[in-house]
Structure formats: structure tokens, C-alpha cells
Write a structure and sequence with these properties.
about 75% helix
């Protein structure tokens, strides 16, 4: 019998989330000051992408 199977799945989700945040914040360092992208937009993109992608996936699934 496997123990802690649910925690393993949660760790994978957390790792994907953190990698996405690190990637977006890393990409944000390449944005020039002339492009008028504020820190608030970058933080929203970095921490809000799992919510928005799941909403888009649900919309696509319901439109099938």
C-alpha cells in the first residue's frame, strides 16, 4: 500500500507553479523601462497564471 500519494502530486503541482513564477520573474528582468510595464503587472502575471490558465482550460473544455 502506498502512503503519501496525494502529497507527491501536490509537490509536482507546487514545483510547476514555482518554476513558472521563476521563469516569468526572470523574463521580467529583460523588459526595458521604455515599455511601460510596471512591477504590479509582472507580479500579477507571475503569481496569477495558474488561475487564468485553469479558467481558460475550463472554458475550452465546455466549448467542445
Amino acid at each position: 500500500m502506498k502512503r503519501g500519494g496525494g502529497l507527491q502530486g501536490m509537490r509536482e503541482v507546487l514545483m510547476v507553479y514555482l518554476c513558472g513564477v521563476i521563469l516569468l520573474l526572470g523574463l521580467a528582468t529583460t523588459i526595458d523601462g521604455e515599455e511601460k510595464v510596471g512591477l504590479d503587472h509582472i507580479v500579477i502575471a507571475a503569481f496569477g497564471w495558474p488561475i487564468f490558465t485553469s479558467i481558460l482550460a475550463l472554458k475550452a473544455w465546455s466549448n467542445r
